UniProtKB/TrEMBL annotation:
Species of origin: Marinomonas aquiplantarum
TM region(s), chain numbering: 186-208
Keywords: Membrane, Transmembrane, Transmembrane helix
Name the UniProt record assigns to this protein: diguanylate cyclase
PROSITE patterns tied to this protein: GGDEF
EC number: 2.7.7.65
Catalytically driven reaction(s): 2 GTP = 3',3'-c-di-GMP + 2 diphosphate
SUPFAM superfamilies, alphabetized: Nucleotide cyclase
A Pfam cross-reference name: GGDEF
Molecular function GO terms recorded: diguanylate cyclase activity
Tagged with keyword Membrane: yes
Amino acid sequence: MTKNDFYRYTLDPDKASDAWFYSLVEKQLDRHLNVNPDVELGVIKLWSDILIRDGEQILGVVGTGLNLTDFLNQMVEKQDIYSAIVFTNYKGAIQLYQQASLIDYASITKQTLDKKQVFHLLDDDASQQTLKRHYAAAKQEPNQVQMAFVHRNGVRQLASVIYIPEIDWYQVNFIDIERFLPLEEFLNILIISLISLAGSLVLFYLLISFVVTRPLKVLDTSIQKLAQQHQVKPSLGRFAGSEIKRLVRHYQKMSQALLDQQNKLEQKVALRTAELERLSSCDALTGLLNRRGFNEQMDLYMTDWEAHNESFGLINLDVNQFKSINDRFGHLSGDIVLQEIANYLTALVGDMGVVGRWGGDEFLILAKEADGNLERIWRHLQASKTPLSVVLQGQLEEIQFSFGQSIIQPGESLEKLLLRADKAMYEMKFPTQRS
């Protein structure tokens, strides 16, 4: 299998469909979430993209798509007709909404004027400016609800804004209070109260308080908790009216469905992001840490050395005659040898240290000195004259290594530590060239 077997197509910066890739690289967004339709599959997906780096150099982009079609359909089915829920990115571009036509697909590639923003759903400039101020306030206090009245669809509505820092999105809820809590629902109660208690204002006040005011206050508290992603079941007294109870039941179903869907979305995004982070630090061929992942481990060891004086060492291991193996048996057999070496080193080191593939046929081992792990690994390598045998195309091939080690010294950098281990390895590999 050659690298051409994995080739699909080449991205073109002049194509609108490929512009997302170059926008991510240009803006250097290490992690980005974006909603975009998959035309070939006929679905809408939430794309999670992560930059692949070698130090400061950007090598490419790796990403995965989460199908949002069912989630959007459920939003349309379960949302109340008197309310609307909108998810936007950090610039207000609509990412999730019950009206799919208003979703700002591929917002990373668009200019601000071309974006479908939540502010454009409002009727006037004053409402738009109010919502923008609450966006800024919400980002200053993540997971805290910011509320304001705005004009939308010709009526005055309550807008609540909450910032979700984990995915750098905002959730905006619009509620038509006058239709969500219609006074007509309580007309029968008011008529009965006026006829029955016309002569007693005090008793009338107490009745309204028990039947309406207190249950609505409980419901209002529950709605505020819901905005903080906490579901609190309203506890109604025995005198609460049937209309209030029906309203509360409807609210409970809606809030439960909303929280369930939001939790599922957050869990899926978190799982996909964690998996992408793992893959970006892992060598695809051997399963060992790649250069980026091994650098992170060296930084951790260096931190322990500087903070607690926990000395550690580095072993540089190179495969002898690896080019000859590739020339005689082919690169596929060379890959098999690298995989067998990775398995051998993983079993040898175990939990005594960390193994990584630095590049090509070069491997690195990191271990602490105080517990004797570094010395045990080093002696085992020295004792094995022919540590590994691999059958390649029916022939038994003996695999040998050259290796060298270096132990961290006071004031020494990781670069110098790597250089000394590399030099020690080459002295073993080419003893006649020692200076």
